[in-house]
Amino acid sequence: MIEIKNLTFSYLNPDGTQKSEVPQLSRVNLEIYPGEFVLVCGPTGSGKSTFLKALNGLAPSFTGGVISGQLLINGIDYLGHEPHSFANLIGYVNQQPEGAFVADTVLDEIVYSAEQLAMPEEQIAIRVNWLSNLLNLEHLLDKSLVNLSGGQQQRVAIAAALISGAKILLLDEPTSALDLDGATEVLAILKKLANEESVTILLAEHRISRVLGSVDSVLVVHGDGSVTKGKPEDQFNDARFAPPIIELGQRLGWKPLAISNAEANKRWIEAPANFEKLGVNQPHDLVLKAEDLVVSFGTVQALKSCSFELFGNQITALMGDNGSGKSSLCWALQGSGTRTSGVVSVLGQDPKELSPQARLSLLAMVPQRAADLLFLQSLADELHESDEYAEVPPGTTASNFQKLAGRIDTSMHPRDLSAGQQLALVLSLQLVKDAPVLILDEPTRGLDYAAKRALAKQLKNLRTTNRSILLATHDIEFVAMVADRVLSLVDGNLVSDESPIDALGAGSSRASQIAEITATPGLITIEQVKQ
Amino acid sequence: MQRTKRFHLLSAGRTHPGAWWIAGISLALSASLSSNIFVLLGISAVAMLTVKLCRDESPWARSIRFYLVLGLIVVALRVIFRIFFNLADAQSGILLNLPSVEIDLGFGNSLHLLGAVSTLSMNAALLDGLRLAAIILAIGMANSLANPRKLLRATPGALYEIAAAISIAINLAPQLITSLNRVRRSRGLRGSSKGVKAISGIVIPVLEDTIEQSMQLAASMSARGFGRRETHTKSVLITRITTFLALTFIVAGVAMLLISNSTQLVDLSVLIIGFVFAFISFKLSSGRVIRTQYIVLPWRSGDAVLLSLSAAVIMSAFGGLFSR
Question: Of chain A residues 276-335, which have a CB less than 8 A from chain B?
Fold first, then answer.
């Protein structure tokens, strides 16, 4: 049982004043019952992580800031205690398991917490046995952590968080770095822990649609300091983070809203709505041609002989699981990555043979971590540097940026921009020379639905008759929103080249949530559904 | 990769990392006591061959190449320095007759460079260089074969805090390289700027990454119970003091033993006092139950073989010293 009373938390400036006028968390009062499965949501940057960290003492211990109020766990107030002093009550799992691993083999990692807390050896043995059964880790115990898949790594992290006897588990976006299979694997484990072992779970998650059907309640961190908790169907008035299933219900006026796919499917069959056919975007001239592209690193073949063409006025999604070769393909096309053999030609030129500067007028690329490209102290400096480097008239980059992101104070530090704004900035820096090919590698990581919609709109604006956009991602809902064509990559082989309707439609292994609910051919996004 | 015949008994994965360090140190010790070029060459060859036969696929197993290069540089530097700063000893056979250079340093002093190089001085330079190279290779062998994380697991409780700090550093080093590569590649997309901007463009994101990663790791350790306050603070203090004394005496003892190049009673007794302190501190620290050690590394038959070989190496080295 967790009781939170009058919890207030603010970040501080270096001079000791509050960072913003409104505290990150302001007078929060709520209770979480033993065995409750709580989904924590809210718009990007609203403070979901801070809220979870406040519950186990990581905030303010590791984040800085001031906290007040009461945090009662089984009746004892732990507010202001160091995280290690109640590590036996609360387990914590974060986004990137590999960054939080302490040991190098699975067993060492799992028992770490029990060793720190001086649990007797016999008891550790019993709990290791129990957890490895529960999380299907028996055959992995002596494996090295770096050789595991993302889903397996997160399962190890969950076992490691529970070994010390904790009955409360905090998870901060545990699936954000995983592909579909990995995410499904982790979420299935969480359901099992909640149902069979009555572990209290607080899960912050972007892939809301995948878990909404199994949670007991939804807790929303609104971003204005308030936090509310209630039934899933009552918590999504804020469209910034509402998943497609909720949007569908809202659009069709369902009362109460359906929260599981099965329920929504029943409602749809009772009263199906009309929908628009997905507009077909006519492709223009050939822009990029890749023939027999092979990428190998040592003995590992990341990409096995791929051939395809990209056309103007077209957004092509490149889909595939983690490790299927998406990133290798992007970097090989761009020219600075490894290309073992094959031919790439952009309007008759091979990007590999050009200088980085000349490449910018042919190909623009946004890498997985867009912020890596930003290194100056202010937005104005970044925009100026870009004009100077590309030798274009001053103000070119700034006007591109304004078209994408609107008017933003240019004295801001680039790191203080939101994730969506940073992406827009990098897009405008990279497109300063109006390159005919734009490649984006996994652009939607960490973006909420509103930011994804904004990005989709930007990409549609950037899709011009002589520009082709290639989007490497495993974000199904985003592809449904934006793509004209879907390429699928499996183990380094291009296995299909389809329209989004075929790739993401009902019955496909990558069906979008709307397609799953409606099971209607030709319907894949909420935007198609008429009110 | 083709796997050649390996000594399974002594493969790196099955052997206690402590045993490899004892073997490495005993080789280094006998190298430091030896003044025979063939013995030194032999020790270097043994170290290299052991790594080649026993190593596994871990990243640090490849570090022996680095130690080999370092050893060769040391030998070359020794010889070159001896040729440059030549102490004229014309009594013995001249190996190389170079023109000599006199540099007047003022105050009536002058520096003598180059000149006739005798066989004797070359011999001494080569011996000095080889001795250092053999020590470097022996330590390199231990480092290439002993998994540092496993070694840290085996550290006694008294050194726990130090071991934890080192293990964080070990965890972060590969991450630092990964983020350096990632940022460099990403920066190439925007085109490379010149001068300070180019450096800050890489350093700023990498530093940010590293700090973020280390905070994340520290947070994860804390959330999992690391850093619990120990209750008997007085006994902790006593343990720390004895550990400190033990380390000081052992280091001083070894240094005296090596510098004086002979076995004197004082040096040995300093070393023995150090070992006594070490014993007391280990006893004290293992008495406190603050953490459990669930996975204890076993000492196997392979380790026994290594330890007895090490003992033989040390005994023969000292034996050679006494019989001289």
Answer: 331, 334
